[in-house]
Every structure is written in C-alpha cells, then in structure tokens.
Amino acid sequence: MSAHPSTPTNPASAEGAARPRIRLHHLQAAKDQGRKFAMLTAYDTMMAGIFDASGIEVLLVGDSAANTVMGYSSTLPITMDDMIVFAKSVVSGASHALVVCDMPFGSYEVSPEQAVASAVRLMKEGGVHAVKLEGGAFFAPHVRALVAAGVPVMAHIGFTPQSEHALGGYRVQGRGEAGDLMIADAQALEAAGAFAVLMEMVPTSTARRVDEALHVPTVGIGAGGATTGQVLVWQDMLGLGSGKSARFVKKYADLRSVVAGAATAYREDVLGGTFPAAEHEFPES
C-alpha cells in the first residue's frame, strides 16, 4: 500500500527548492555574527521536506530513530544499515538544509580507521553532508582522521546517549568541576577539526562557558540559550509521544491528539458506512 501517485515525494516548495544549500560556513557565520540556527531530527522524506521548506537549517538523521521509529529502549541497537536507509530518505526530502547523520554505536569507537570507513558509507550510500559522533577528547584522533578524509564532523559532548550505561543513566553532565573537563573536551574536538560541538543536558552556565571558549558554533539540547543552534527530536517538538516530556522540550503542537482524532473519525466512517462516499468511488465511464 502506498500514497497516491500524485502525492509529492518531496513536500518542499518550489521556493524552498530554489534556496541555496546550507553549508558549514553559513553556520560559522551565524556564530561569528551572533545569530542563531535551528536543527531538528528527521528520519523520512516527507517530514524532511516539511522541515526543509519551513527553513530549518540543519536536519539530523538521529540514532534516536532507534527509539522513535524502531521502538528500542535505547539508541544502542540501531545499525549502520538502518542509519543509511533513514539517511537516504531524509536527503531525498531536503533541498536546502544541511543533513547531518549520527554515527551509530559500534561504528567508530575501535579506531580512527573504523570511523573513516563508517563515515564514508554514510556519505556515499546515505548521501549525507556531515556526521556526528559522541565522545570527548579521547575521540579527537577520530575526528582528525575524518576531517582529513573530507568528512565534516559535529562533535557531541555532555550527556551522550550511547554511553548511558557508563554514565549511570540519563543524568545532567558538566556540573561543578566537570564543567572544566567539558571545556577541555570541546577545545580538543575543535582543534581536531570539528565544525560544531553539540551539548546535551548540561547546565546553562557550563554551556555558556563552552560556547565562549570555542570559535566554532555550538548546538544545545537541554543546554540553555547560550548556544548558537538548538536541536530537538521532532516527535517531542510536535507532541507525538506519550508520557511526560523531558524538561528541555517545548511542545509546539499536540500531534498525538490530532492523529488519534483523525484515526478515530476514519474508523467510525468505515464502520458506519459513510466512507468511502460517492466522491471517493470510480464511475463506470
């Protein structure tokens, strides 16, 4: 079963398609000029197209798809092959946004050489424009090797979901003296060539110190307003999930209620015999 052939596979408007692609220097200019940019996760063509046409500057093909799409309890099980499928879907829907893809757990930790081989797959097979990897200064050699191979890298520090077991669960990072270590990690990753540093679940004061210590832009999720960019998981931002949201999430819509209401109305029409109606049927001639 598929959408009607007249349904566009890329919902981006003609105006959006004509806009130039966001590049790394555009994000750097935002940092240099004191401006902001927005980043959202995306895992499929249609949502990527909507976000792209809405002007979202960066789309993240997040390993959060493990939770939001595949139903796993953590990001750990998602594979490189899974990420490539999601990446190709997002790239096909985005004509303007910079598309960044998470390197999944187990795809880069062993060595810089493994990191390069994995990133090459994401760029060649997935078509993404940059990758994101989790970890501090220990992974500076990996970042350096990736950049030398022509792969732009966004670094991810603070709470790193792939290390949730080592960190003792979903806990705020970078408080007290740990903030100094976070600055050192960020500076090492910048020196290795990372074009941006993402911070997750860190105190606003620490995020501000990191941002002030770096030349490259920073991106925050649960890191306050001092960062150049902000990122949210789109299902959180649009209220698709159930249960309590994280403290740092702002819901811009209640999509769960909208979808549930539409599905209920559809079922009632089918059971009541009012759908399909005459206008939904094909005449004999």
Automatic annotation (TrEMBL):
* Cofactor(s) this protein requires: Mg(2+)
Database matches in CDD domains: KPHMT-like (cd06557)
Q: Which UniProt keywords apply?
A: Cytoplasm, Magnesium, Metal-binding, Pantothenate biosynthesis, Transferase
Q: Where does 3-methyl-2-oxobutanoate bind?
A: D63, S64, D102, K132
Write the Enzyme Commission number(s) for this entry: 2.1.2.11
User: Per UniProt, what is one GO molecular function of this protein?
Assistant: 3-methyl-2-oxobutanoate hydroxymethyltransferase activity
Note the SUPFAM superfamilies from the entry.
Answer: Phosphoenolpyruvate/pyruvate domain (SSF51621)
Which pathway does UniProt place it in? Cofactor biosynthesis; (R)-pantothenate biosynthesis; (R)-pantoate from 3-methyl-2-oxobutanoate: step 1/2
- The positions annotated for binding Mg(2+) are D63, D102, E134
Q: How is the cofactor bound?
A: Binds 1 Mg(2+) ion per subunit.
UniProt function note:
Catalyzes the reversible reaction in which hydroxymethyl group from 5,10-methylenetetrahydrofolate is transferred onto alpha-ketoisovalerate to form ketopantoate.
- Quaternary structure? Homodecamer; pentamer of dimers.
The entry's protein name is 3-methyl-2-oxobutanoate hydroxymethyltransferase
Its source organism is Paeniglutamicibacter terrestris
